[in-house]
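anyone seen this seq b4? input:
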Amino acid sequence: MKPFLHALPLVALLAAVPATTPLFAQAEKAPAKKVFPPIAKTAFRTQSFDLALRTDTQTLAQLSPRGEAAFDFVPASREAERAGDGYVHIGDIHIRLKSGGGAWQDYSSAHARKAIARLAARGEVLAAADITASMGAGIPLRVERRWVNDKGALAVRFTLTNASNAPVEIGGLGLPMVFDNIILDRDLDQAHAQASFVDPYIGRDAGYLQITRLNGHGPALLVLPEKGTPLEAYRPILEAKAAPPGDIFTDRSPRGQVSEGFYDWTIASKGFAEKEWAKAGQQWNEPTSFTLAPGERRTIGLRFVRSPSIRAIEDTLVANKRPVAIGIPGYVVPTDQQASLFLKAPSAVATIESFPAGALTATPAESGSDWARYTVRASGWGQARLTVTYADGEKQTVSYYITKPLEQVMADIGRFTTTRQWFEGKGDPFHRSPAILTYDREADKILTQDSRAWVAGMSDEGGAGSWVAAAIKQLDNPEPQEVAKLERLVNETVLGHLQVAEGPHAGAVRKSLFYYDPKEFPDYYDPNINWKSWTAWPRKEAEDLGRSYNYPHVAIGHWVLYRLARDNQGLVKRHDWRFYLDWAYRTSVAMMRDAPYYAQFGQMEGDVFLDILKDLKREGMTVEAAEMERLMKGRADHWRTLKYPFGSEMAWDSTGQPEVYAWMRYFGYQPQADVTREVILGYDPTIPSWGYNGNARRYWDFLYGGKVSRIERQIHHYGSALNAVPLFDAYRQNPADLHLLRVAYGGMMGGITNIDQQGFGSAAFHAWPDMMRWDAITGDYGMGFYGHAIASATYVVKDPAFGWLGFGGDLTSEGAIVRIVPKDGARRRLFIAPAGLWITLQAGRIADATYDSASGKVTLTLDPATAIAPAARLLFETTTASGRPYALDGGTADRGGYAIPLGAAATTVTLAPR
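predicted toks r here
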């Protein structure tokens, strides 16, 4: 599929765009709109919805919450332009079948429409039709469709009857799900008010779709299966002009950064698994087919249900008698931890099976509520699933990802980035030596050339990702040899080459070290690469300082070395801590001076600027702190004037929200922080699947940081872990809102599924069923690992329904005493939710902790001293309005925290409420 940018240099695009217009949204503006004749519709009303069907096709043309005519879940405003053949709508159907042992044949109600035969509509039936004529010539089935108001719920039902004399095997059966995810021609306010995003739970009979508004407001829409309509797969409906020849399961609407496109609720998928998906990885569910004997019929159907809010989705599922699964802390399970699975369904659990066999075990545990509770343990590595079979025969699948213990995962990525990705190319013409460069896992080699200049140039997200990951890994898990390489990278390659070291632009960051100039380097460039793209920047373009998104990457490198030098002994050797903190500050200021256009937006990893500011204050660098605070407040004050201050170079983005939230909180703009929190929940769901749980929406960055370059829903792109950071903060303010913690933990843990067994970190997982595997290059993964690293923590929770819960560690309770053994990747951060107590260490580690729920006392056991960490440095605060202040029983005051000497044995310290 074609990229959404035209073949113009980035600076040329910038020059043509008004300062208030997001760059890439402008680049994909559609031509002047044609005027289309209006479409005749018939209006209906149910208890929950105002809806309309097209008079000619009886497909869905409106679906608004009752009484909210200004909002529509389907693209009703584009109904006229999408009226012709080849445009799918809700109410269409795709069928792949074989008859009498022949080959698979495809039939679509939307590809070449014919007049439908209306059927009598009686009782609760709103409209009915025989749509066989519209399916295509020669179909051996009769296809009838009915729209039903079933006791207030809207349902669409298809009856398939074998009208032939031979058995018919149906191996592809899909119902197009067409919702208004189109951002084209909408500004951010309009998009947040009018557009919706769809997230699937591909869980067979328990599967569903949730359709949420971009602003995060309710109501939300749920699409639920009726009997015999499992959500077995979620198949993308390809854009017609980009589809393979002969594919009729397509749609003519453009798919691009301004529209993710549409998908089929896929009930049977064996016919796709044997053809288009034959080379793919493991599917979410086992592909199936079913056979209709001559004269046999089968009815399938979907129900459209309104949930009052995003947080009420699971309650709405329960109320509609759907099987519901809740995984705590989620669906990513390290082999040294135990998880919990809570199930509630109208029918009792009959069996729970693991695929692969033995990968997961689910053991019944005491629940204390009306939820069935199971303890889940994992062995092996990679994707796995549990299949829950209920007594009524329904099957529910829950998808898990098994990882190594997190300390091993941290060691793996540190080792891989600093060895396999370590580049010392003597005489490298682009001054990238020494460096940590992008890696191609398929070729198992460093990628020194790419037509996307940034991917090979250590900058932008697709090229900086790997060295950012290597740097942030050291924050809580420093390894001396790796730190030494990081020092070399920052001092020999970043300073003076990637970053301007002297003069009026000192601190500014170039867009890329790599560039395309065949006159300067006639024998360097690989002739097998297409160098004619706009992405093959010339030197002038690569050396531009105006892209603010590059600045946080460099700031992270300096800030990590500051922290390592300040809180450890003998680890950082080239400069003292003040040198690195000063350069972190100078990078932050330079962004505002040299990259002001993009600095008006929130930055990915922008949280680092807040950490730098706090450290400047702790160190008494008051002049620098005051200047940085002034600059950042100017940004925050601008965002405060906007209804939805989440712009970027894209038409819509999930990049800037975390930094916007951070500064709104810091400057006391809580209403704007609350808006940001709810917007994040609009695109970041909790779903019983490792892939979609906490998966902040992204579907275009494979174009810019992937090896397979296409518009495609990405699983655990860096947005997942970055957007977890503000949700964790919001939860610590309000521990009663468990939904926040569940989404946050899903995103944070999703951010380490990218790391393979040797430590390679992939840009993201390809969610389309023709791939179902990790992308082969590192790309922009490091931004996500940054989010994971700064958010890694253990949470102790007391939930009214589920009781005591541990997120990130193994929890046991006896009477009033609760014990937690942290097993997150840092073991330096602990939140005791009932006390609102947030404990962080910048040196040292927590071996275990106990919480006395009667007295509120917390006892920490710290690991023994090491050569680089002879003392712990502990900070704590009460984050909730009702929480009591705490006092520490020892230690020496140090920069807003406490220094605690460590010995050869474990050290115990106590915090007690005052």
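The longest strand covers residues 297-307. The radius of gyration is 28 Å. kinda curious what u guys think
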